[in-house]
Specification:
It is built from 4 helices and 4 strands; from the N terminus they run ββαβααβα. It is mainly alpha-helical. The protein has a single domain (about 5-10, about 25-90), classed as Orthogonal Bundle (Recoverin, domain 1). The strands form 2 sheets. A two-stranded antiparallel sheet has the order 1-2. Strand 1 (about 10) and strand 2 (about 20) form a beta hairpin. The protein is globular, with a radius of gyration of 12 Å.
Length: about 100
């Protein structure tokens, strides 16, 4: 289950404007969400950033969810989720 496609929430984690998380998203909206979660601005989401994102979204077991997201989305196995991988992840049907 990927919360940014399921649970509508507002976040304001250092972003200039809160991002509304409700499906479906345009690529521009997904890029804004990615930028909010990418706290160090390096263009990749680390396990720590993913865990923080799940925490912000109020999800249980944020560390485990972050690991699952990395396993599913990290196509090149570098230990991070790129913006391209993030967009693919959010487009996946979580029930498949």
């Amino acid at each position: 289950m990927f919360p940014w496609t399921i649970h509508p929430k507002n976040i304001d984690k250092g972003c200039s404007k809160p991002v509304t998380l409700a499906a479906p998203h345009s690529e521009e909206q997904l890029n804004k969400i990615f930028d909010c979660f990418d706290s160090n601005g390096d263009g990749h989401l680390s396990w720590e950033e993913l865990k923080s994102a799940y925490n912000i979204l109020g999800m249980s077991f944020p560390g485990l969810r972050a690991l699952k997201a990395l396993r599913v989305a990290d196509e090149n196995r570098d230990g991070y989720i790129s913006q391209k991988e993030f967009i693919k992840l959010t487009r996946k049907n979580p029930r498949k």
